[in-house]
């Protein structure tokens, strides 16, 4: 085992995987700002257009749990080339799409390829680097995971303002093709693989469980919790998930090996990642919502406001990885979450005329804090797992991040919506009671104040969710290199 750990690290191969993962994750948020243009071209409603985002997320959510089986069963070369081919074909289909449904098919193909990229890259990193250097390696991994979706809105805003929405895919295609060509000629098999059987019932239950919950919670903010399909998909998802867990515990070769939760630091890291994801992704939605809706700032400038935060995270990820290797995750996570709590509180006190650069600074500080949390905590938990459980640990973490991110976003958007409605009623009554004449200008002003208060309230709830994550970091213990010897 010692020999294996000291073989040369395949940096070029990891570089190919990095580029593939970066462009696939970038595509997750690339269409957000382009949606209105696409809806206009194809004459579709917002609820139909939203499937370009929701469908991508659903496909990823359904396929990520299967990634542990795929990573174990197939070589990294075969798996990456297949995933990259699907992604490239999907991108090409989207460029020439003559109708919305062809475009949606292209997005599904992209998502099917993308879903395997991150678990595959994470598993290769865990195998390639000795445990005492994993922090630095996973810091670069974190740069891909968070920076790519963070720069998506800025890049998308600029492209849509100057070119057509199809350019979003045209820009990505050459990189995807180059990545595929390099992979075909240069990628070698690095990770061990073995024949394992695929339990079809587990795949069905996993798809219904994660897919149902993701769809239900991501639709709740728009359709409301009382909507029949929202309630039904969440209930079906929850029941399927319970049956899925029961089945995994009984199988000899489970789709997702839940024995990873026998390791206390992995279990704790999973809980902290889940709680923090709820606050993290919701903040990424609430900030541009305030900037565009309340302040009336253009989509491109709204995306630009979030860019420094993405740059800071990109610069910090490798640095936090090196700090993790030296000092562990606990202190860094406590400092990072403390910064996030303070910055989120500041975002909960926004006013109707809060300055653009003030918002940019606070959002960037929040992202700086975030850069010190996710990867160190995740790596600390994964370090405790035996090598054969790495694919399962990576798949579980990625799945939880998707699901809890969607849940947190839906919950906070629902809280914001309900608060806005109650504020409108209350503020209107106060205006009538004061004898004010209900003009259109006054109604618009009241509507804006109601929304502002609701966004601030949602940020305040997000702050307390972050406080929960901060409290949990007290129990983190450093996983030392020699702790992996139990394998």
TrEMBL record:
PROSITE patterns: MFS
Residues spanning the membrane: 12-31, 51-72, 79-102, 108-128, 140-159, 165-185, 197-216, 228-246, 266-290, 302-319, 331-350, 356-378, 399-417, 458-476
Primary location group: membrane
Record keywords, A-Z: Cell membrane, Membrane, Transmembrane, Transmembrane helix, Transport
Name of one Pfam family that matches: MFS_1
Transmembrane as UniProt keyword: yes
GO molecular function, one term: transmembrane transporter activity
Occurrences of domain Major facilitator superfamily (MFS) profile (ranges): 13-481
Topology within the bilayer: Multi-pass membrane protein
Keyword Transferase in annotation: no
CDD domains per record: MFS_LmrB_MDR_like
Alphabetized InterPro entries for the sequence: EmrB-like (IPR004638), MFS (IPR011701), MFS_dom (IPR020846), MFS_trans_sf (IPR036259)
Places the protein is found: Cell membrane
UniProt GO cellular component terms: plasma membrane
Family per similarity comment: Belongs to the major facilitator superfamily. EmrB family.
Protein name: MFS transporter
Native source organism of the sequence: Lysinibacillus alkalisoli
